[in-house]
């Protein structure tokens, strides 16, 4: 009964997250999950990424994901589409191959002999016998003549193994290096996985319990491996339930209740959760590949950040804190890098799933209370990766989007604290170089701090976020004035000689010699041509620095027109982001990485919106597919996918926390967003491969000439009707009032 209650409680929690407004109230639910291809982005290598993803078999924002494992234990490329062998079926928490995993372990059925070594037990497989859906995975393991099926819950999973006739069949449990596996009785295995790559307290452990409906006998193995054997008849099905917890073994046993129901019912629960979440946007189109790409991108947008909260014995929501090693109450969302995801992933969540966003903000409160800082890259605790203080954007955009029911006062304390501090051991948390920034208005390039110009640009935007949030909270103007002033610090790294952003020395002189093609150095995974546009909050101010709209447009045009040349001297070799830029045939535009992804929309600010429409449609059609090579670079925890979701709808959050979206070009003939305040219906009946220019737009039946949409107008429900054309309309969106928000406008 206790397990049944936990199952119902877990499902209720998931339903709250996914069903902000039940899709069933609008129409009979469609199986949106059938359009999803979890293999999208898996045709990737260290040198060239088409997503750097793995097939995540999970529930939306689930605590644990499952994936077939083709790579060796510890390899960040846990599943590669070009691989030929599967080593196991892995529980994973990996947000990126560059961050890697923690608490991982795997199961593997074996029939060829008592082989527990990951190389010996590996089996040939074919994609032709592989079925991958967000809520179900199946594959035939040729060497073992075994079909493996699995369905997920948030903290547990059901496995169904169909064995051949064999005097001695096996099941291997691999707890990875440092782990421990113990056969408790003839139906139960317990394991402890402690592998990690940082961001955890010393007592970190993933507690695992495995139960089989078939009795087994323990075999001798090393401590971090377990192997059990049992006779099987041809076609015999062995059911195995698995659950785990970062809190305790008792909590893992409690979590097993999430798969207390039969395999098919748990699969139905997971499928329903996905269809409720995916069905928040209903798309109608006659191009099935567009539908597949869209819903695959939306699926990727609903995986991270994950919620590590677990429902305790008495129904209390609690989590293991990777900061303190203690068990604390409340939500704890992790496995995301704000440098990537502040741009469109969190704005998408705030629009579609405000209740989930509220839980994320509650989790950020817990981060701050437990560690003294907000995260910038979390997996599961603070990780040394990337730059910026973009937690300020994540906090500000949520509150200004109307997300509530959390301690915003504590988050105000957090964002203002982090603006003038750096984590004592993880320098990417807080603001590295804040002393220089506060004194000089920029982070100098000659004081031993790398990627300084990028930091300055992002800190300036983050200060604008703090200022804007403070105004909404009615904070005293005297307290806000420093942030208002610092929001213009982007000007301090604008090199007027080149009309581009550049590193600047402490004495005020700019870096010489200067190459706009040089990746890294003063910038992060990009060059000045990519980072110059990172003035999200004040494009009008940037236009002024460049000498006006004509110069601004010409500079953007140059990025696309020039050949994909680069200077990789900072790295000593072309990093994968460089290669991804060169192969995509769009000049020096590098959509495979985040810094420039918003730049396509900046023509909206300079009276040439038709160029935005053409470039956005080009990227959607050329850089995204529904297949294994789905992306043109790292997918990055939902960011590159959320860019597509927004862009396919026809608008994009260039400046999160501004309350506006820049207008682009819708991809579909019709899309309906089921928001809490009402439906947003987007119609473009003339849309086609040739008709991608916006000739005219009405909002709720009234002409709308502006190159932006107001978030508040959409949140209460709206109808957008686009008249599309094969020719640009040079008279639409060219007035001063048609420009999107700018701080200095």
Structure characterization notes:
- This protein is an alpha+beta fold and 745 residues long.
- Helix content is 28%, strand content 21%.
- The strands form nine sheets. It has an eight-stranded antiparallel beta sheet. Strands 1-3-4-10-15-14 form a six-stranded antiparallel beta sheet, with no helix packed on it.
- α7 packs across α9 (408-418) and α11 runs antiparallel to α12.
Lateral strand order in the biggest sheet: 6-7-8-9-16-13-12-11
- Biggest sheet: strands, sense, closure? 8 strands, antiparallel
Work out the number of β strands: 34
What integer value in Å does the Rg equal?
Answer: 26 Å
- Straight-line distance between termini: 62 Å
Q: Fraction of residues in helices?
A: 25-40%
User: How large is the share of residues in beta strands?
Assistant: 15-25%
Oligomer: single chain
Query: What coarse outline follows from CA principal-axis ratios?
Result: globular
**How does the helix and strand content classify structurally?**
alpha+beta
Uncertain stretches of 5 or more adjacent residues: 1-13, 15-28
Describe how the helices and strands are arranged.
Elements: H1 2-18, E1 65-69, E2 85-86, E3 88-92, E4 105-110, E5 123-124, E6 131-133, E7 136-141, E8 146-152, E9 156-163, E10 166-174, E11 180-185, E12 188-193, E13 206-212, E14 217-219, E15 225-232, E16 236-245, H2 249-255, H3 263-278, E17 281-284, H4 288-300, E18 306-307, E19 310-311, E20 317-320, E21 327-329, E22 333-334, E23 336-337, H5 338-341, H6 345-352, H7 354-371, E24 377-378, H8 391-400, H9 408-418, H10 434-440, H11 452-472, H12 477-486, E25 494-495, E26 500-501, H13 528-531, H14 539-546, H15 549-561, H16 576-583, H17 609-623, H18 639-649, E27 651-652, E28 660-663, E29 670-675, E30 678-683, E31 693-699, E32 702-703, E33 708-710, H19 711-715, E34 718-725
Parallel strand pairs: 30-34
Antiparallel strand pairs: 1-3, 2-5, 3-4, 4-10, 6-7, 7-8, 8-9, 9-16, 10-15, 11-12, 12-13, 13-16, 14-15, 17-29, 18-22, 19-20, 20-21, 23-24, 25-26, 27-28, 28-33, 29-30, 31-32, 31-34
Helix pairs in contact: 1-3, 4-18, 6-7, 7-9, 8-9, 8-11, 11-12
């Amino acid at each position: 009964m206790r397990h049944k209650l936990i199952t119902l409680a877990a499902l209720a929690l998931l339903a709250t997250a996914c069903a902000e407004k039940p899709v069933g109230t609008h129409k009979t639910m469609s199986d949106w999950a059938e359009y999803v291809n979890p293999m999208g982005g898996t045709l990737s290598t260290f040198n060239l990424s088409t997503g750097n993803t793995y097939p995540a078999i999970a529930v939306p924002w689930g605590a644990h994901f499952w994936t077939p494992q083709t790579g060796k234990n510890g390899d960040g490329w846990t599943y590669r589409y070009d691989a030929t062998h599967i080593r196991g079926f892995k529980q994973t928490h990996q947000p990126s191959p560059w961050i890697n995993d923690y608490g991982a372990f795997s199961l593997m059925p074996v029939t060829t002999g008592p082989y527990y070594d990951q190389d010996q037990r590996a089996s040939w497989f074919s994609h032709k016998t592989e079925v991958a859906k967000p809520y179900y995975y199946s594959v035939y393991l040729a060497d073992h003549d075994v079909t493996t099926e699995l369905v997920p819950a948030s903290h547990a999973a059901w496995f169904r193994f169909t064995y051949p006739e064999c005097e001695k069949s096996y099941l291997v449990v691999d707890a990875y290096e440092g782990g421990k596996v113990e056969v408790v009785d003839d139906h139960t295995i317990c394991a402890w996985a402690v592998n990690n790559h940082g961001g955890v307290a010393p007592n970190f452990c993933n507690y695992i319990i495995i139960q089989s409906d078939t009795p087994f006998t323990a075999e001798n193995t090393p401590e971090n491996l377990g192997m059990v054997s049992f006779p099987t008849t041809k076609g015999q099905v062995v059911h195995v339930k698995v659950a785990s917890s970062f809190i305790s073994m008792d909590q893992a046993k409690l979590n097993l209740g999430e798969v207390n129901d039969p395999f098919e019912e748990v699969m139905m629960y997971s499928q329903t959760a996905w269809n409720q979440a995916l069905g928040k946007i209903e798309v109608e189109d006659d191009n099935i590949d567009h539908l597949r790409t869209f819903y695959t991108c939306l699926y990727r947008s609903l995986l991270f950040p994950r919620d590590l909260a677990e429902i305790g014995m008495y129904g209390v929501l609690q989590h293991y804190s990777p900061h303190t090693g203690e068990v604390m109450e409340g939500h704890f969302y992790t496995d995301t890098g704000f440098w990537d995801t502040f741009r469109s992933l969190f704005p998408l969540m705030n629009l579609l799933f405000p209740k989930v966003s509220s839980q994320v903000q509650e989790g950020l409160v817990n981060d701050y209370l437990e560690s003294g800082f907000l995260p910038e890259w979390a997996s599961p605790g603070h990780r040394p990766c990337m730059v910026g203080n973009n937690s300020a954007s994540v906090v500000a955009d949520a509150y200004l989007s109307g997300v509530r029911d959390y301690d915003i006062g504590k988050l105000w304390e957090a964002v203002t604290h982090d603006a003038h501090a750096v984590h004592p051991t993880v320098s990417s948390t807080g603001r590295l170089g804040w002393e220089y920034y506060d004194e000089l208005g920029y982070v100098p390039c000659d004081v031993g701090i790398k990627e300084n110009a990028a930091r300055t640009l992002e800190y300036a935007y983050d200060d604008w976020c703090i200022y804007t949030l403070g105004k909404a909270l009615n904070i005293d103007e005297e307290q806000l004035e420093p942030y208002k002033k610092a929001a213009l610090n982007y000007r301090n790294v604008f090199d007027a000689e080149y009309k581009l952003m550049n590193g600047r020395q402490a004495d005020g002189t700019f870096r010489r010699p200067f190459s706009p093609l040089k990746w890294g150095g003063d910038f992060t995974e990009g060059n000045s041509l990519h980072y110059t546009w990172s003035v999200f909050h004040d494009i009008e101010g940037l236009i002024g620095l460049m000498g006006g709209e004509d110069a601004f447009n010409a500079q953007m045009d140059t990025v696309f027109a020039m050949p994909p040349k680069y200077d990789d001297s900072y790295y000593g070799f072309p990093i994968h982001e460089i290669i991804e830029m060169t192969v995509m045939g769009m000049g020096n535009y590098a959509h495979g990485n985040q810094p420039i992804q918003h730049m396509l929309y900046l023509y909206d600010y300079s009276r040439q919106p038709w160029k935005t429409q053409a470039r956005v449609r080009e990227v959607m059609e050329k850089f995204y597919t529904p297949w294994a090579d789905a992306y043109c670079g790292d997918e990055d925890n939902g960011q590159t996918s959320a860019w597509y979701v927004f862009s396919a709808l026809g608008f994009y959050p260039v400046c999160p926390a501004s309350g506006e979206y820049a207008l682009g070009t819708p991809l579909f003939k019709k899309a309906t967003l089921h928001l809490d305040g009402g439906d947003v219906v987007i119609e473009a009946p003339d849309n086609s491969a040739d008709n991608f220019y916006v000739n005219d737009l009405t909002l709720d039946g009234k002409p709308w000439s502006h190159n932006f949409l107001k978030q508040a107008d959409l949140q209460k429900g709206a109808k957008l009707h686009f008249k599309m054309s094969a020719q640009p309309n040079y008279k639409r969106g060219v007035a001063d009032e048609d420009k999107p928000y700018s701080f200095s406008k």
